[in-house]
Design brief:
alpha/beta; 5 strands; five-stranded parallel sheet
């Protein structure tokens, strides 16, 4: 089975769970003019189509960013590629972010300690990992997140 097909099923469940836990936030996102999604540690960004499909159901106008320290693809469409670290995005994008995604980052979730309070308190964080759950959970804890 294609990795994107497996991811589609898993991501659907992750998104449904998040919406069940925070329905008011998702209602707010549906009413916004547009929403901003940032995929951290995007690598080859193999989940681009799935992310676009599900997030455009929440709000058809999305700004999707793929962030990584290395550019591994020529074209990241439908996302805009940002080379660098999540902590170096700049205030403009940082203040626009509604949803932050992290899927199978290596070696773990980047340290988010330099990001402003607005970012850390108001952004939906969605992530999963299939190769080292213990490391993933540790990097979540190191960044002040809880399940």
């Amino acid at each position: 089975m294609e990795p994107s097909v497996c991811f589609d099923r898993n991501f659907s469940a992750i998104l449904k769970d998040a919406e069940k836990k925070s329905p008011a936030i998702f209602q707010r996102l549906r009413k916004k003019d547009s929403i901003c999604i940032v995929d951290v540690g995007c690598g080859y960004f193999r989940y681009d189509i799935v992310l676009h499909k599900y997030f455009s159901r929440i709000n058809p106008k999305i700004n999707l960013y793929a962030v990584d320290k290395m550019r591994l693809r020529k074209d990241y469409s439908p996302a805009k590629f940002l080379k660098g670290d999540i902590n170096c995005l700049g205030k403009k994008i940082e203040n626009e972010i509604d949803i932050l995604t992290v899927f199978n980052p290596y070696p773990g979730i980047p340290h988010l300690g330099k990001i402003s309070d607005r970012f850390s308190q108001n952004v939906i964080f969605l992530g999963c990992i299939d190769w080292n759950k213990k490391l993933f959970l540790q990097t979540l804890e190191d960044n002040g997140f809880s399940l």
